[in-house]
Each structure stands twice: as structure tokens, then as C-alpha cells.
Amino acid sequence: MFFDSWHGLLRVIVVGTLAYLGLVAWLRATGKRTVSKWNAFDLIVTIALGSTLATILLTEEVALVEGVLGMGLLIMLQYAISWTSVRSGWVRRAVKNAPTLLLREGRPCVDALRKQRVTEGELRAAVRAAGHATFEEIDAVVLETDGNFSVITRGWEGARCAMSDVEGVEDRAGVPGVR
């Protein structure tokens, strides 16, 4: 059917606008970290928020206040998990993956690439995007928890503080899986 009533169209416009403003208000109230670079857990919350917003817009059985409360609940649960993960290592490990070393001293870490489902072509693209032409120019490439690649060109072996949480750093070059 193409058209039911003007009432339905007006409801979508009014409720949609108010639900959207409610979502923006919730996101602003919970701070920048709520919408910063997301991990898999945050993606799930985002999809759930989109589904909730669509339900509010298109289902007359769901009242605006109930829908906005539902979105607020999802956002507050995400906020609580983020807040707790900053303060508790086991919560952080439960919701976030560790960054993974994919290239070390110019050599791909084949086992890590395979485990993370990253091709050498993607590794080359990350190196090129960082402005380099060869793996040999690179000390390390790290797959970050948000899916981005960090390319490190020099000096990380001596000062490991930024690399201390990277999976695979403790391994020595020459072990199986590093070529």
C-alpha cells in the first residue's frame, strides 16, 4: 500500500523528530566517549539504537516516551560498560580485544595475520597509507581494537610503553609465525 493516512505521515514526522532529538540528548549527556571510535560491543549498541529508533518511528504501539527510554537504557548500559572497563581489567578484557602486532621489524607476522583475517595486501595498503614504500622501513604495524592500523617507523623496541598492551610484542622475532 502506498498511503494510509495523513495522520500516519504526521506521526512519523513529529515522533521521528522528537525521538531523534531524544537520541541526541542522550548521546550529548553521556559524553564524547559514547560516540568515539567504536569496538564490536559499541557497534552492537549502535545497531540496537537504530532498530529502536526505527521501531519508534514506524510502530504506533510503541509510545514516544517508551522508545526514548529504551534508547536511553541502551546508551546508559553502554556508558556503564565503558565506565567500568576503564576501572576494571577483567571487564575491559571481556568487551575489548587487545591490539595485535601484524608486522615486526619489516617482517609480517603470518600467524597473527591469519588469526586476525588480514591479508598481506591490506598490510601493504596500511604501510602505503602511512607514506612508506616497503615493509623494511617499518618497525611495527598494529591492528588496533577499532580495526585501524597503526604504523610505527622507529624506536619502539627501546621504549615499549605504547606497545605494552599489544598482543604479540612479547614474542621475539624468529619464532614460528614471524617471517
Automatic annotation (TrEMBL):
Q: What is its main location?
A: membrane
Keyword Transmembrane, does the record have it? Answer: yes
Q: Which InterPro entries match?
A: DUF421, UPF0702_alpha/beta_dom_sf
According to its record, how does it sit in the membrane? Multi-pass membrane protein
Q: Where is the YetF C-terminal domain?
A: 88-156
Gene3D superfamilies per the UniProt record, alphabetical? bsu07140 like domains
- Span-the-membrane segments of this chain are 6-27, 39-58, 64-86
Q: Where does it live in the cell?
A: Cell membrane
Tell whether Methyltransferase is among the UniProt keywords.
no
Report keywords, A-Z: Cell membrane, Membrane, Transmembrane, Transmembrane helix
PANTHER family per UniProt: UPF0702 TRANSMEMBRANE PROTEIN YCAP
Q: In which family does this protein belong, per the annotation?
A: Belongs to the UPF0702 family.
Protein name per its UniProtKB record: DUF421 domain-containing protein
Organism, by scientific name, is: Luteimonas kalidii
Q: What is the lineage of its organism?
A: Bacteria, Pseudomonadati, Pseudomonadota, Gammaproteobacteria, Lysobacterales
